[in-house]
Queue: 4 jobs
Job 1
Amino acid sequence: MDVTASAQFSTPPRIALKVDVDTLHAELEGMALLPALEQLLSAWRGAGIELTSLGAFLAAMDAAGLPRHRTAIGTIAGRSGTVALQGPEFLPRSQRACA
């Protein structure tokens, strides 16, 4: 797989959400696929996507107001193996003590 194809494969389809969380593996994208990673990050920045750490993102959020979801195990088309996915919501905001 060439660098361009790798960057295109690694770019998930965007859906109408305020936030997308993407996982990058330092042992792959940060080393073996560094040219593809650089191209991917450049493309994201060019598309106006703000890159930040989860820690910085959480610090700026109202964590008590975030939805709670179970973790589910499943598969993603085009990716081998199983992964952790967002499962069904539990403890809706209306049922929380802080609501």
Job 2
Amino acid sequence: MKEFTFLSQCTCFISCVALCQAVEPPNVYQIGNRISVGTMSYAVLNAKWTARLTDNQLMDSPPDAAFLILELQVTNIDLKPRTIPPFKLVDENGA
């Protein structure tokens, strides 16, 4: 089963970086696992690599990269309405 890493830019992470403290390596989660960060929970439901973002024949030039398409489920677990905070996907090398 493929593994993906989430590194949320939550308040505690931003403050750790701002204080120049050592940041622990990110946790690794499998597809389908639900994780909670602050007032949100996240799950990757599906993931696939593709060389195309569209089936449009007019945009059929080959790209110089592959695209990772993720199907995410994000749930607000707070009582207040919230927007999805920024987050990023991190590979096994931390990039």
Job 3
Amino acid sequence: MMTSNKHDENKWDLSFSLHSSSEPSPESSRQKPIRRGDAVAVRYFDHVLYRDSDLTIMKPTVREAIGWLEDQNDDFIRLVWERYAEPSISENSRIRSTGIALRKCDVIEIARIG
């Protein structure tokens, strides 16, 4: 399922669908919705910090990330791309993971993979 975000609408409910409008996506009738724990690919706008540069060419850049959808709310999604796989790791270590939190208004598209 590939879903595009219209930047003026950033309230998705990922437990049901990632289609960003009130109309159901044509793909939604054929594919399962993206849920917490699913492996996903995300394209998003990233901020650019510049210094002593030509400001006329500075703009957010498009980046991509792949990981597990760990959580979401009305404003952001949290994507984990590195986590412990061993269940025997101590609880203190298991809560540590690596990923990115993205504002939904910066997400261009998201797709379940695997």
Job 4
Amino acid sequence: MTNEYEMADNQRSKLIFDKEQLLAPLQQGMLRPPHPMVPGADDQSYYRGEVERATPEQQAWVEERAGAGEAGESQEATGPQTDGEVVGQAAR
């Protein structure tokens, strides 16, 4: 199987997908992004299934930001994440 494929339909509107339609739902134990990565993990660790659930530090990080007025709102990505730090975030 290759990474190349074609999609066809008689209406273009049927081939336009929203972000929510393309992303898998969060499973139990997962946190809504953005959040820092698990210490010692890299991007590939997540894809290999080595990270099974959120750490207490990640949960505290997300809850801290949710309590700052983002609760109930859709959390938007603030920039690339590296080694547990979010970079490129605008000062508030």
